[in-house]
Amino acid sequence: MLSPNPHLWLGLIICGAGVNYVFENSIFALQNPVIDLKPQQVMAKQKPTIPKGTRDFSPSVVVKRKYIFQIIEQAFQRYAYQPLETPSMENLSTLLGKYGEEGDQLLFRILDSGDFFNGQAIELLKNHFPGEGNSAALSSQLRNQIASKGLRYDLTVPFARYVVQHRNELTFPFKRYQIQPVWRADKPQKGRYREFYQCDGDVIGTHSLLNEVELIQIVDDVFTRLNLKVTIKINNRKVLKGLTEYVGQPDKFMDLTMAIDKLDKIGPEKVKQEMRQRGLSGAAVDKLEPFFSLSGDNRGKLQHLTRMLEGEQGQKGLEETQQILDYIEVLTLNNPVEFDPQLARGLDYYTGTIFEVKAHEMDMGSICGGGRYDDLTGVFGLNDVSGVGISFGAERIYDVLDKLGRFPTHMQPAPRIMFVNFGRKETQKALEILQALRKEDIPAEIYPDPVKMKKQMSYANHRSIDYVGMIGEDEIARDVITVKNMESGEQKQLSLQALKDLLAGSD
Amino acid sequence: MLSPNPHLWLGLIICGAGVNYVFENSIFALQNPVIDLKPQQVMAKQKPTIPKGTRDFSPSVVVKRKYIFQIIEQAFQRYAYQPLETPSMENLSTLLGKYGEEGDQLLFRILDSGDFFNGQAIELLKNHFPGEGNSAALSSQLRNQIASKGLRYDLTVPFARYVVQHRNELTFPFKRYQIQPVWRADKPQKGRYREFYQCDGDVIGTHSLLNEVELIQIVDDVFTRLNLKVTIKINNRKVLKGLTEYVGQPDKFMDLTMAIDKLDKIGPEKVKQEMRQRGLSGAAVDKLEPFFSLSGDNRGKLQHLTRMLEGEQGQKGLEETQQILDYIEVLTLNNPVEFDPQLARGLDYYTGTIFEVKAHEMDMGSICGGGRYDDLTGVFGLNDVSGVGISFGAERIYDVLDKLGRFPTHMQPAPRIMFVNFGRKETQKALEILQALRKEDIPAEIYPDPVKMKKQMSYANHRSIDYVGMIGEDEIARDVITVKNMESGEQKQLSLQALKDLLAGSD
Predict the structure, then answer these.
(1) Does the pLDDT of residue A462 top 60, yes or no?
(2) Contact across the interface for B442 and A63, Cβ inside 8 Å
(3) 3-state helix/strand/coil string of A256-302
(4) What is the ipTM for the molecules in this complex?
C-alpha cells in the first residue's frame, strides 16, 4: 500500500493505539504542494530579477557555503588568527591605483548622495559639452567627480588600510582572517561572479618563515577536513629574481615573472616568446632552457637550482624554501607540498614565498593561493612591514565539492521532526512537546494550519524532514507521541524522553 | 618581584628542572610592543580613513557580534527557519517606490559601468544645460539614468522579490531567516550607521496564528540566551482599524496609525493634535479619550476593548490577540508578553499582529520588532500571500549588552596557549606539540621570531593569552612542557596529555 519511495509516499494509514487516521492514497503533482497559486494571484507584471553576475543563495546552498566557511574559519582560529571585518564600501582614494588600470575599471562606484552634480562635475561638463560624440571619455572623467566611494574589490587592500589606520591599537605580529564578499564589475560568465566571497588569512609584522609553515599547515588542515586531496605548490619570488641574475638581466624581474605565470595556459614556447617580447635577450632566454625542463623531487630541484643560481637573491630564495620544507618534513601533513620553481603568481606585490593549491581529482585551476609581501602597507604610508597571506577560493572549492559529491549528506536545512497539525487542542499539546525539544537544541516544527493530512505530509516530504510526529486525543490521554520515520516508513509510539533520545542522535 | 597584575608583568624568572631563563625585569611602554615603528616608516601621507557612517570591526568586536548573530541564528534554526542570502545589490526597479519618498533618497545607487553617460542621460543634459543654478534638480533626474542598481535598504523587499522570483521552487509555507548587512545613506549619528546588519525571520504562505506564537517564542528564546530581560509587546493592526470604525472614520486608518506611532515620543496631547491635522474630526478624537487612558493587565484591556470596539475589524483583531495569548499562556516564557493597544509601528504594510520588544534595564527604544502583512509580495505581482516576520536590531542589542556588561567573559579572540620561540631546534619540537593540540581543536600558536623574551611575553599579555608554554633543551630531553598560567602566575611541567586536558577545559 505504501510507495517504495518514502519521499513520494503520500497516502497513509496510521494506527495509533486505538485511533486511526485515514487519508486518501493518491499521488498528485508535487509542485507548489502547499500554496496553490491561482493564475490571478500572479499579475501580468514582469517577474522580478537580480543584477547579472549576482546570485540568490537558497537555503540548501547557504548550508553548504557555510560548511566551507566554517571549516576555513575554524582552521584559522586553531592557528590563532583573529577575525576582522571591514566596511563593504571604501573611499575611492583607498581603492584606486591598487589593482592596475584594469582593476580601476572593474570597481563598482557608488554615486554620491544628494546633489552630486555640482562643483567640479558641472565645470567639467561645461568645458566638454556638447559632447555627444565623446560620451565615453566624458563618462570616464565624470566618474571620479560624482562618486567618492566604491565597493571593495578584494580583502587585501582594506586589510592594509586597516593596519595602517589602526597601527597604534594593534599588537604585532597581527594575524587576521577575513571572510567577506567582494565586488568586481567583471563580465559575468560561468564561475565568475560580480559578487563573491573571499576567505583570507594574513599575518603582518614578522619576517619569520614559521608563518609560511603555518599557512601550509592551515591549507593542509582545511582540505583534509573538506575531504579533498590537493597538492600545495610553493616557490619563492627570490628564486625568480635569481633567474634574472643568472641570465644577467636583474631589471627584468617582473617581466620574467609575468611571462612564467602563463606557463600553464600557453606552454613553454609561447612563454619564451613572451619573454623576448618583454625585453629579455635571446641569449638570456636560451640560458633559461634547463629551467623549463626541471624535474625530480623537491630535494633534486633544490640541489639543481642551488648549483645554477649563484646570485644572492636566488640563493636566499632557495634557502628559505629549504627551511620551510625542513620544518614541514617532521609534521607529516596529509597533502604533498611540492617545490615548483615554475610557479609565479600574477600579483605584483609578492616578494618571497608564494603558494598555490590544486585539487587532485578535478582540473579547476588554483583553489587557494597566497604569498609573502614586504611592503603591502607602503602605499598607505607605512613602510617596511613584512607580511604573508593566503586566500581560499571558496566559490571554486564549492564547485569542486559539489561536482565530486563531497558535501556531507544530511546537510538539509530541515528540522528533525515536523508535527502534524490536527487542530487547536492537539496543537496546544504539540507546542509543549516542541518547547521541550527545542530546549535541547533539537530543531522542530509544527505545520501551521490544520489542513488535509496529504498537504502536511507533502510539505514534510519536500523539506526532507526525517520524522513526522502525531499527537491526537489518544496520544494525549496516554502521554505518548506517535513518530514516523519518513525514510523507513517505520512508526512507533514514544515517550517524550525516548523521542528526545531518538532525535538528539545524528540519524 | 612580580607585578601584582599579571597582565602588566613583564620580567620573569622561570625555573624549569635544571634550566633557568632569566630576563630583565623592567616595565616599558606597552604601545606597539612588537613592531617598533620608526618615524621614517610612517610617511607624510595622510592616514587613510573609511567612509563616514561605516565601521571597521576589530577582532574583539567581531567576536561579540558573532555571539549575537549565532544566538539569533540558532534560535531560528530550532524553529525550522531556513537560511537565505540575497545579493547586496538589487535592481533599482526592485528597490524604488518601496520605502516611500524618503527611502528612495536614502538608497545607495551604484554607478553603471562603462559609458554610463550616453543615450537618455546625454539627452537629459542637453535639455537642461547650462543649468548651474539647478544642479540639485539635475542630479535628482540624472541619478536614475546613470545608475540601474542599488545596495539593498532592508532584507524584507529582497525577501519578497526572492519569493516571487523563486515561487515555483519553494515549498510553502516558507520560513526563512536572513542575517546580512543593509545600507542607507542616512545622516550618520550616534548609533545610526550607513552600513548595518539586520537579522530577519519571516514565514510566508500561511495565515496561522501559530506563526505569531512561534515568533514570540523565538524572541523569548533569543533574549533568554542573551541574558537580557525584555517585555514583548503585541498589538494588532485590526484593533487600530477597529478604532477608526469606532469613531466612524474607517478611511483614516493609516493616519490614526501613524499618529499613534508617535505616542512614546510626543505624548498623547500632541498625538491628538496630529490626528486632527491628519483629518480626524474633533468629535472622533474626543471619542478616543478612553483609549489613551487604557490600563490594567492583558485580560482587562482585552475585555475593555471588546466592549468598546464593536466593528468587525476590531473584534477580529481582539480575537486574534486573545488566541495568541491563550497559546502563550501554557508555554511559560521567561519574558512577559504585554498586549499594548497603543503599539502602532511605522511600516505601512502590516495588516495583523504587530510586535515590539524593549529591554527592561535600559531605555534603548525597540530592540526587535515585526508583524503580519497580507500582501508583501503584491508589489512584485504575487497577490494574497500572507506572511509574518520579525527583525532583531542587532546593533542596538550589541550596545545594550555592551553597556550592561552582559557579554560572556573569556570572549577574547585569543589562542589558549602561546609557545615561546627559543630558536630553530626548540621550535621544531613546539610545532609537533602545536600540531597535536590543534588536532584536538585547541587554538594555539608559537611566537614567530626568536626575539627577546620580553617582547614575546608582552605579545602574550596584550592578546590576553591564558597560558604560555616553554620548551627548552631540558623539556625536550624530559618530554615535558613548562606551562605558565598568565593569570595566577603559577607554573608547572606537564606531559602533552596533561596539557591537552588542561587546555580543553573552559579555563
Answers:
(1) yes
(2) no
(3) HHHHHCCHHHHHHHHHHHHHHHCCCCHHHHHHCHHHHCCCCCHHHHH
(4) 0.89
